[in-house]
Amino acid sequence: MPESKRSxxxxxxxxxxxGSATLGVSAQExxxxxxxxxxxxxxxxxxAIPDPKFPPGAEEIGAELLQTLRDDLDYGGYFxxxxxNLYELVPVEGDVVxxxxxxxxxxxxxxxxxxxxxxxxxxxxxxxxxxxxxxxxLGKRYGGTAELARRVAHKLADELVQHYTxxxxxxxxxIAFVSKHGDNKEIYLVDYDGRRLRRLTTTDSLNLSPTWxxxxxxxxxxxxxGRQPGxxxxxxxxxxxxxxxxxxEFSSSPGWSPEGxxxxxxxxxxxxxxxxVLDRIAAKxxxxxxxxxxxxxPAISPNxxxxxxxxxxxxxxxxxxxxxxxVNVRRVSWTxxxxxxxxxxxxxxxxxxxxxxxxxxxxxxxxxxxxxxxxLTHDVANHENxxxxxxxxxxxxxSDATGEYQIYTMRADGTRQVQLTRGxxxxxxxxxx
Amino acid sequence: MLRRCTAxxxxxxxxxxxxxxxxxxxxxxxxPAEEDREQATETRVVPPPTDTRAASEEVDSGGFAGxxxxxxxxxxxETISVTELHERxxxxxxxxxxxxxxxxSLATLRENAEVLKAYPTFRVAVEGHCDERGTIDYNxxxxxxxxxSVRDYLASLGVERERVRIITFGEERPVDTGHxxxxxxxxxxxxxxxxx
Lengths: 433, 196
Known about the structure:
- The complex is a heterodimer.
- Chain A is α+β, with helices and mostly antiparallel strands.
- Helices cover 15% and strands 39% of the residues of chain A.
- Chain A folds into 2 domains: 8-165, Rossmann fold (3-Layer(aba) Sandwich), CATH 3.40.50; 174-431, Neuraminidase (6 Propeller), CATH 2.120.10.
- In chain A, the strands form 7 sheets. Chain A has a 5-stranded mixed beta sheet with strand order 2-1-3-4-5. Chain A has a 4-stranded antiparallel beta sheet with strand order 8-7-6-28, with no helix packed on it. A 4-stranded antiparallel beta sheet of chain A has the order 12-13-14-15, with no helix packed on it.
- In chain A, a hairpin with a 6-residue loop joins strand 18 and strand 19.
- In chain A, helix 3 runs parallel beside helix 5 (149-165).
- The longest helix of chain A has 22 residues, at 2-23.
- By secondary structure, chain B is an alpha+beta fold.
- In chain B, helix 3 (49-61) packs antiparallel against helix 4 (67-75).
- Chain B is built from 8 helices and 4 strands; from the N terminus they run H-H-H-H-H-E-H-E-H-E-H-E.
- The interface between A and B is medium-sized, with 35 and 21 residues.
């Protein structure tokens, strides 16, 4: 039995050696991701993350930490995790790191960790190696209480992304949304991976469209807690703040400016729904649209020079872009008879929005440079309210694929759809910056 | 003027106020017949609101305060109950993604306008609703637009805008939670809510 196992392993090793011979070419430039992340099909870092020896009492929490880290890296899309079943092919000899052997199972990079657990405190050390040249790339150490295990994993995952891409990761981001409570809806937060669900409001009224401030400290939202539906703001802990909007009998659709000082929204103060921008510091409002049709769902571009919005001035809701001052209005959506709730990609080169296609609602992305539209969802369900991840590589949205609306994420090309919520019907997700 | 009223006349007024609601309760048919509705309301809305309030203030200060004195303030509006008025204000329905009023809706609103003019002391809220299709955000604006169309038309018929508050609920309050056109057509509506 041991013999046959060994020969099987040898065969496997031979196969992966063959494989790595071709893959090895790209392994010569450790920072190669820089050039490829702009493209569609990215070259991924092939990384192995073996479990460390878990200290007594920390077997479960340690396994969760390591798995969270792997899940984060897998989800982010920059890394290709080497199959853990191959790790046993690399002999362990004390503290010696056998880079050639890791390379032979396809691991260009290797993350080794050491976990200590004492008096309910976790202490994690991590070392990142480039197996192609045997150099240590990174050394990190994190400590915290056991409840912070997932957070520690997210932090380390973001470090790795930052190291290889020079850009911040998204593992510590959160998603705000609303969930049905009878006739009402309350605001909830959940980590981007669907974990740590928590309720933020207990208002017994209708709340919609929570929208993160750029620094992640506040949420603007629409609520019926007053006599009329209006836009409110609260801290991420749920404490209500002050927002000097123009009021009206209805205001909705808050959209933050990139520096967080201004907030675009829609109000019917003038008798028709128009777009306004509030300067929170000056406490001044400015009206931007003057059209008897509906003008709503404003979204300020990442460079704060433009505002995308929806108008039915031609008879159907379509996406328009105007300069921040409200001039130079141009229509940008030209396919379909219902296009709504546009949101800018973090780089400002694309707009994602909800579009009706053959009677169902789908998420589409408009490339503003080429003018081309790409439909991201294709199943028979409805999909609404897209919101970009801060790295622009993912989109969160609501879909009724299970029969009622739930929150999902997908890659910005429409692949890898992941259902985040499973409780009561949930709507209007927004990804923290 | 009123403040100079003599105590006996005030007492008489209070007695009248106490008596009239009592009679009214024995007449369940509070909705006047079509032809004499206007007249009926006019004769019943006595004394005028401001007078009533002034009178009850005087009564309070004059030592006649009691539960009955408080009731006198409601008296002037009791020619029709909120429930009954609500039942007489028909809802109107809309085509998909539209805030145009159909001929049927216009007819309903003309009737509603007559009712509202007959009971000028009541205020109403017009709630604008949508079916579940479309985005939550846009449906809020659409619901507002539907309610605003209703208020605009009522105003053109002589119902003061100040009496009509509008409130949108978008797609948030369906009357029928089904996912068929039959359900959707019931949900695309503007309804009336009576406010005091």
